[in-house]
Amino acid sequence: MCTMNWLVGSFAFLAVALGAAGSGVGDDFTRFRGADATGVAEDHPGLPATWDKETNVAWVVDIPGQGWGSPIVIGDRVFVSSVVADEANTPPQGGLYLGEGVRDPAKGVHHWMVCCFDLGSGKELWKREAHAGRPVVPRHPKSSYAAETPATDGERLYVLFGDLGLYCYGLDGELLWSRMIDPKKTNMDYGAAASPVVHAGQVFVVYDNKEESWIASFDTRTGDQLWRTPRDEVMSWATPFVWENELRTEIVVPGQRVNRSYSLDGKELWSFEGDMSILVIPSPFAAHGFCYLSSGYVGDAHRPTFAIRPGASGRIDTEDGFANSEFIEWYQPRASPYNTTQIVYGDYLYTVYDQGFMTCHDAKTGEEVYGKKRFSPKGSFTSSPWAYDGKVFCLSEQGLTYVVQAGPEFEILQTNPLDELCIATPSVVEGKLLIRTLTKVYCISEQHGQD
């Protein structure tokens, strides 16, 4: 299976809690896993620990078609992308596919859509069709032609449909510019998934494929391509990470062949091979001054997690491997998930495995705190975890959220059912939790129950 970071993408959150790593950026949810890409939200009295399809539901809206990007939020507006097909195609299913893909493009005319809703009420404010036509590339059987999470700088909305194009909208729905993407053959015909990221007037897009991989920057105002750097990669789907560390700002991009960092003008800063898993999906993020990289296809013996120190240049691995590298703070050879992205909350790094387990490591040293603990009832996972109020939340593909007590002991406090396929990573903004299922977006908030 693949591309669900995806392919969820290419798939939540704001500031830090419990002394965790990072600081929030405003109140908007601006990209996959939130403004600082950590998955950790600021504590808020409206954020619930309990919900179902009725309890603590402020509103729920139907989303036509299919899409696995997270909702993003700018002010009082929620933005969601989706693709609607005129003909029935193979429906997405949970679980592992182990190499099985959809070898032909989906049938019928598709409509690539962008929708805007009111954060307070769920009322639809506008809907736009970015493109209509027949898909020209296949996709992963679990994924969607709208796998990526949009991004924003607070002034404009940037929607990437990975094998199709990048579209820029004003917050009122006006199409400001678009840049088409020349589709390429991807590994196992899984399609694209990495979500866009925005920083300092640039939109960064990564497109790894089997023909001509690249990372590129586009001007946020005009859509002009500012630079494009070739990548010697063929199959990774991780969303890039703009790492604003104590020494500089850089763009970190994992790869199956080589992990790399780029300057803001597209020049390579550092790299190392890492002996990464054959399918690289989890997205990088920063905590405690380190940048965390991981990959963990279930069929691979080596499923590494790395904590990288800032300031590197050139090759940072050594002839002796990773243990003696000046810029690799720690390394664990078998501590990475397949599709989900890990989360650091407080001093702990939590890993949610696709087949229904969780582990915990010391985020500063990499030492194991507890080994694999099974979720009960059992579930499978693509959505990445999030955290607030001393709890780590893990949403299964079956639509069941496990509420796990943060800390050195594994304890499931409760479970919250929505009873529908869930692949997208939820989003958190102030006192509201937005969960996207196969057909809906739920706005969950305890404030609703207290009115």
TrEMBL record:
Residues 50-232 form the Pyrrolo-quinoline quinone repeat domain. Residues 1-20 form the signal peptide. The keyword NAD does not apply. The keyword Acyltransferase does not apply. Gene3D superfamilies: 2.40.128.630, YVTN repeat-like/Quinoprotein amine dehydrogenase. Keywords: Signal. InterPro entries: PQQ_rpt_dom, Quinoprotein_ADH-like_sf, WD40/YVTN_repeat-like_dom_sf. It holds the Pfam family PQQ_2. This is Pyrrolo-quinoline quinone repeat domain-containing protein.
